[in-house]
Amino acid sequence: MRMNRTTLVVAVLAAAAVLYAAARFLDHSAQPAELTLQFHPFVGAEPLVPNEMRYANPGGEGSFEVRDFQLFLSNIRLAGDTGAYAEPDSYHLVRFDGPQATYLVTLHDVPRRDYKRIEFGIGVDPAANRSIQSRGDLDPNGRMAWTWDVGYKFVLLEGAFVRGGVRKPLVYHVGFDENYKRISTPFDAELLGTRDANLSFRVDLLKMFTGYATVDMAALSNVKFDRNDAALLARNYAEMISPM
Amino acid sequence: MRRLASAAASFAVVFGAITADGCHARRRGPTPLAGFSAPFVFGRFEVPADNPLTEESVELGRRLFYDRRLSGTDTVSCSTCHMQRLAFTDGRRTGIGVSGKPLAFNSMSLANLMWGAQRFFWNGRAATLEAQTLVPIQHPDEMAEDLQRLVAELSADDSYRALFAAAYGEISAGAISRALASFERTLISSNSRYDQFLRGEITLNAQEEWGRKLFTAHPDVKVSLRGGNCIDCHSQFLTSGFSTGLDGFSNNGLDDEELLQPGLQAVTGDPAHRGRFKAPTLRNIALTAPYMHDGRFATLEEVLLHYDRGIRNSSTLSPLIAEADNQSAGSQEGISLHLTEAEQGAIIAFLHTLTDEDFVTAERFSDPFVRK
User: How many domains does one find in chain A?
Assistant: First the structure.
């Protein structure tokens, strides 16, 4: 009798364990997910190779090289009819000069919902652009900061341009509130159910010079504080990031 | 300005991870450093988890910093080349240690080391402050000390035995480096007139304010903005180089291609890093002459002249320096900022607002062996 009772207890416990595991398994869909966004740098069809004079001036004669290319990617958001997820302190300094050419952003604790779109901004939203708080990668003492009066550079591209044997510097620093551009692309919510969920984007820096209007680097080799020039490049870079 | 005032109002005391978990659990462990703070506008900082700032480690580090026994000849201490009254520099073109031979580099100021580029030495060859501290001690021309010999020497001293026991539980090369790094992390300079201005306590005079505006502007003739271009390498509040990646290292046009020294390339091996050196903090810059990694400029006037019309072109020259010009482009005369003499004077006046008298006289940073 005693043995039987023990056996019964063991059996009940085992059954409970199985049920618990099954419940956990079924409940998986309720667990928050992790999603990695991968950003791959391109110059037109070619992957970006820094410090090489290999790219043709998109708007005229001559060729150019890229020494530094950095941009702020802000306020990543997943949106659907049944709810939205917004990454907290979502300010990422995207750059491609580390040991890996790809820049990764991993979103943690994403509730599994039927999201339809993924959205983010190129640049810094006006509220954060007017603040000197360090949030995410925002750093008022950083390379992307102008001054507390002006705010942040949203996109930085520095390099060199050669035409007819004459080399000159390229400096494109684009900021200002009006140039904060939101990007929104369709999102397949089933992705969140997969292991190592990740989503790849192409970041085509050539689009800064060809997206909406074509720019001749010989004529416009630097853009800093001129609002029209900055707006022109921003209208272009609004098309710079697209799903792969 | 309104934004700045509110930031100054929230001049928050920022506590880092200075109270490591283990400290309280251990009986009679070291005491977390009390009242340690830094200006809000300096931003985030990190103290290594395995070397928290404690009263004991900082006291020990201060003693070691000023102790000549750290050199093989017992004649040179860290403070020989890093004197408090000169904001921890030595006034020489390049340092001179036990061998009497001039060293390769100018002695760097030691201030606000937890911000800016987190690689140390002019060429960034030390990845941590802890690693940095042991290099001069062992260098044959600097302090020429053998670490084992030093540990034995300090172990024979009762007061050091007690200090090390309280701070780290042992006397070792590692404990020496951690104590020195801890003391150096407390060397915060944040009471210059510029700091007081940032806190909203004072206003700058007209010339200084003009200089501040020029300091923080990259010139753009298209919108009639004149600038001294300093901000492109020296951040607005810290006046140090940038902390991200290797952005705090620049080629600021000191030499032509043929004479370009390796700089950061000696550490990374990357030809794109040739001639790039650490952009230092400019706090107390009026006290830290001569200037540049090799001390080639004797005065701030010479430094301004260099940036205005002395830039040497090379393949790794900062594009921001090459491009910066306060006159319309078109001339091929070479690189020049085209600042007026008065503008250069204004920038120098602003640089003088970065002098922090408290920092260079504070008792807690001074030589503990001097009886007052």
Answer: 2
CB B65 within 8 A of CB B79: yes
CATH of B15-190, one of 1.10.760.10, 3.30.360.10, 3.10.310.50, 3.20.20.80: 1.10.760.10
- Closest in B43, B222, B231 to A226, CB measured: B222
Chain B residues with CB-CB distance to A162 below 8 A: none
SS (H, E, C) chain A: CHHHHHHHHHHHHHHHHHHHHHHHHHHHHHCCEEEEEEEEEEECCEECCCCCCCEECCCCCCEEEEEEEEEEEEEEEEEECCEEEECCCCEEEEECCCCCCCEEEEEEEECCCCEEEEEEEECCCHHHHCCCCCCCCCCCCCCCECCCCCCEEEEEEEEEEEECCEEEEEEEEEECHHHCEEEEEECCHHHHHCCCCEEEEEEECCHHHHCCCCCCCCCCCEECCCHHHHHHHHHHHCCCEEEC
| pTM as predicted | 0.90
Query: Is B237 close to A140, i.e. CB distance below 8 A?
Result: yes
A171/B243 CB distance under 8 A: no
Do B42 and A50 lie within an 8 Å CB cutoff? no
Residue of A67, A133, A141 to mutate when probing chain B, most B C-beta within 10 A: A141
Q: How does pLDDT run across B308-349, given as a tens digit for each residue?
A: 999 999 999 999 999 999 998 655 567 899 999 999 999 999
Q: Which CATH number fits domain B193-355: 1.10.760.10, 2.60.40.1930, 3.30.2350.10, 2.40.30.10?
A: 1.10.760.10
Instruction: Yes or no: say if B285 and B279 are a contact pair by the CB < 8 Å rule.
Output: no
Could you tell me which of A186, A185, A39, A188 has the C-alpha nearest to residue A112? Answer: A188
pLDDT computed for residue B14 by the predictor: 36
Full domain range(s) for residue A5 = 1-30
The pLDDT value given to residue A20: 66
Q: How close A17 comes to chain B (CA, Å)?
A: 37
Residues A23 and A140 in one domain: no
ipTM reported for the complex, 2 dp: 0.89
Domain with CATH 1.10.760.10 in chain B: 15-190, 193-355
Chain A closest-CA separation from residue B95 CA (Å) = 30
User: Would an 8 Å CB–CB cutoff place B137 in contact with chain A?
Assistant: no
pLDDT at position B35 is: 81
Does the distance separating the beta carbons of A142 and B235 come in below 8 Å?
yes
**A52 interfacial to chain B (CB closer than 8 Å):** no
Do residues A3 and A85 both lie within one domain? no
Q: Are residues A75 and A15 both part of a single domain?
A: no
Q: How far is A33 from chain B (nearest CA, A)?
A: 29
Domain co-membership, A9 together with A65: no
Q: Which residues of B touch A146 (CB under 8 A)?
A: 216, 218, 231
Q: Would you say B278 and B249 are in contact if contact means Cβ atoms under 8 Å apart? A: yes
Same domain? For A22 and A125 the reply is no
Residue whose structure tokens are 């977390």: B32
pLDDT tens digits, residue range B7-25? 433 333 333 333 333 344 4
